Fold each of these.
Amino acid sequence: MRIAVFNTKPYDRRFLTEANAAFGHDLHFLEPRLEPATAALAAGHPAVCVFVNDTVNAEVLETLAAGGTRIVALRCAGFNNVDLAAAARLGIDVVRVPAYSPHAVAEFTIGLLLAVDRRIPRAWARVRENNFALDGLIGRNLHGRTVGVIGTGKIGALVARSLRAGFGCEVLASDLYPDPALEALGVRYVERGELLRAAEIVTLHCPLTPETRHLIDAAAIEAARPGLTIVNTSRGALIDTAALIEGLKSRKVGAVALDVYEQEADLFFEDLSNEIVSDDLFQRLLTFPNVLITGHQAFLTEEALGAIAATTLRSIADAEMGKLLANRVDAGRIAASR
Ligand code: NAD
């Protein structure tokens, strides 16, 4: 099928082109994001492929439908950027990649935790300047520390398992559906308030829902143990950034590692190094020596990108052959995972 691939980066081209050897689609790579001003570029393409920060609202979908598009394939899991009701009304199928590599995100989470806790980026910056002083680089052992894992689905379960069985942490967990395999390892499910009060480290792996929005807020930070380390590779809006900054300023929060940020749509995935960034909260976060931020790259492994590309192209091939679409987004379900 002829596919307009919006918002492509070099790695998208590489992995989609490689995976396409098995499908033979006609891929048309486009650099712009999909938005009202660019939607007409898809005219004549029955399939459109987009990423998490493309705009797929009713206006865009109407332009796509008028140009002959019948399927929108998200090369990510989240679909909160798509107006599903408008897509259904216009007869456009929406497919996504529900799971690609939870190991990619879980391993990155452990990497961020170790990096911020053991001051690895600061140490590396010093060594590059021939500064081999160790003052200010004291970390803590993970072994024996109490870690709270909020959300023990595909990613959180791998993180909890690694911390418990690998590092020998005391692991507390919070989830609507406790995992008996984790409990057998000694992971203890507790109510979220208890977890937030008891943990020395909290790592977030639940989806963003109205209930989980700002679950780390001023009250949670106030109730936490002094020196709390917070890791978030899930969704930025799980944390109230302004409250986090106050927690860092008061030293109640001891360290923070983030791969996601509430207002990341205006920042991440682009080179803004020559721009003036006007997000004052983000800029303030960057000033703390105990904050480590990456730009939503936890998923970025060879394995995950290969799986995303293959699943996306297979869904489009299934649509072309009139098969049932296993990864079709059901308009009745709203989720904000990625
Ligand atoms: P999943 O659906 O397998 O697991 C989510 C878990 O959270 C489930 O067990 C669910 O029961 C639980 N949950 C739901 N509401 C909860 C609540 N209120 N309190 C506690 N637990 C709750 O999802 P996953 O594949 O493990 O992904 C987890 C998150 O990771 C996603 O929501 C997504 O935002 C994020 N993610 C980030 C990246 C990245 O590159 N940074 C990549 C993929 C996924």
Amino acid sequence: MASMYKMPISKLSGIGKKRAELFNKLGVQSVGGLLNFYPRAYEDWSKIEKIDKLKHGGTYCIKAVLGTPISDAKISGGRIISKGMVYDGTGSVQIVFFNNKYISSMLNEGEEYLFYGKINFKSFEKQMLAPMFSPVGSGAGIHPIYRQTAGLSGKTISNAVKQALSLLPKEINDPVPEPVRRKFGLCGLRQALNDIHFPKNAEALETARKRLVTEELFVLNLGMRSLKEHSRGVSGVKIKDDYSNDFERLLPFKFTGAQKRAVKDCINDMTAKSAPMNRLIQGDVGSGKTAVAASACYTVVKNGFQAAFMAPTEILARQHYETFCRLFENTDVKLGLLTGSMKESEKKRIRQDLSNGKINLVIGTHALITDKTEFNNLGLAVTDEQHRFGVAQRAKLIGKGKNPHLLVMSATPIPRTLGLIIFGDLDISIIDELPPSRKPVKTMLIDGQKRKRAYNFIKSEIKSGRQAYIVCPLVEEGELDNVASAEEYAAELMLKEFSDIPVGIVHGQMKSDEKDEVMQKFAANEYSLLVATTVIEVGVDVPNASVIMIENAERFGLSQLHQLRGRVGRGKFQSYCVLVSDRCSAETKKRLEVMCATNDGFIIADEDLKMRGPGDFFGERQHGLPRMTIADFADTKSLELSQKIADYIMFVYKDIRCDELRLLKAEIDRLFERGGHNSLN
Ligand code: ADP
Ligand code: MG
């Protein structure tokens, strides 16, 4: 099989240079690649329906005799319409073809065929428009439907696949060892490839799918594990002394038990003599991850090394910077901020101080991982809101030092099964406790008619000293204008409802220094109300804010809403989240009611994944994992099975580099190369 990936697609007969290019367009370069070009759907010709059972609008396969010769007729524009009647003993169907002058010579009166197509009821007749057909005996089974591109028909693709399959040797070396297949009921690769393309029946297809889906997931799983193993070989930056107790004295509050445990995990990892720390801190919004990270940074700095803290947005980086400035005011920690929007000269100065070691704790955005940024002796790399960064970006930050420790933080409650894969290369500390005196946010769903009441409620909160957010989604250009744009909406609020209240606006099109200014004024309580688009989504911390009203709530995913809601309820005040939706279908309502029913991010994430699938859940491949060809991250059952298999494989074979797993290792490398990752050695 391995050699098939080296065989160019043009080796197949009937595939010249031009067709090969079209295949390339579909992402297929080699014969092996073609075998992995799985059908996107199937037509089931294995289940034959009787004509009297056909329903209007359904797609069926029928077995019927052509009772009349096909008659051609010319219609307007010189086009041809061909018709015939077919019978199966329970009824008749008219078959209709357009513009195919060969039909009449392809179908013979009195012969039996399989016809496959969509059924239309037309007055007294049942019609099948432009059905596909094949003589009885050759067409049965399940037919693959491939993703196509102009100039390359499904038929050509399917013929090429047939050829490729015939080139496979009878006994192919299966990357999944036989004992593993036997234990978990997975069919062999040869059978799987045959049946994923040309299954005889639904059962054969299911067997093939199970094998290929599970394999892809446990190959990924094993790959993520060996990423982790990889860094185990070397020893990390040496941290000798633990300063976490000193750090705690700097805080204006006491750590929760969960925070203490997380800090301890970090200190243990960093002071251990072996490998560098590779740790994920997972905790729901508001659980206090920043302070845990700050503690780790402090210990690293006090041991004479630099620490870098990377955030996904400018606003967040700035906010962390300010928090840290206050926290470390009377210490010898020397702080720096590095973001993309800063003046070149300023950036240059910060970069100089990083490379000469004058700054020992830097907070920043992606600007931290550009080539220009160099560190003197990076000891700890922290990434906040990890789901916003890919595995590759994480690696890049680590690459700025010699085996620095790594701490990643995530509030995105990723469903457990998926988390095991995505974070398969990390140890995990979970902060499952909110700071004391936090009250759960009360959430309600209203329609636009109650908007006025919601405004009044916001006013009363503001009157008693609190602050509020109103969120409306960013309007893309050319979108329906019944979705309020942040600016217009805010202008109206300022002029009417909230004319005697200071209102700030942030939206996506503002320059980041403008946004920051507004955010800072809001944080300083110069604005009582902030009208915003999703830019406030992650991390922003204003404990005095007690209400968030979210317009067009139906436009957000549940996980996003949960993040937004996390902007309130961060202090000691009872807080509220008001979801507004005017166009609330029953389904939307059900979805939004999940928000009202629970504050548990994990439940919400599971619901979100169930309802929307992982594509939306993560936005644009934000998880940084390689792209799957057949597996689906929402398929929890397969995720669980693959996890079990990966455990079993590591238990039995111990080392992924052992000879029995040679072929499997090659599959892992191929998967990660496809995702733009470096080969795992
Ligand atoms: P997140 O986990 O969402 O990043 P933050 O680290 O921003 O949360 O913390 C949220 C808020 O809770 C901040 O205002 C922070 O100062 C406060 N906080 C964190 N830990 C505690 C604690 N143990 N007791 C009281 N307040 C805390
Ligand atoms: Mg945070």
